[in-house]
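Dear Dr. H.,

I hope your travels went smoothly. While you were away I took the liberty of generating a structure for the chain from your last submission, since the lab meeting agenda had it listed for discussion. I wanted you to have the full record in hand beforehand rather than looking at slides cold. The sequence, exactly as received, is reproduced here:
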Amino acid sequence: MSRPVPLRVSQSAAEIGENLAAWRKLQSITSAQLAERAGISRSTLSKLEHGDPGVGFGAVLAVSRALGVLDALVQATDPYRTDLGRARADEALPTRVRP
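The corresponding predicted structure, in token form, is as follows:
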């Protein structure tokens, strides 16, 4: 028995799916073409674009790569691009490495 998906996760999956579908349409790529380029089935792509939170992370990354937005996704999750991440990096990293 699987656990219920939190509402915010479901909402985010739907928003990301809509965004990826919009990227596909802006580039005039059919779902069949994108699925082939990403190495996934059209069914998986459809689930992703419709916000199914059960779609595998690898599929999200493959579609993002095929659409040319993978670097933006990686950058969006980089903690060192945030004020908090930069502030905490100074605390977490050693100031001196002992031999």
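Two observations you may find useful: The mean pLDDT is 92. The CA atoms of residues 57 and 63 lie 10 Å apart.

With kind regards,
E. W.
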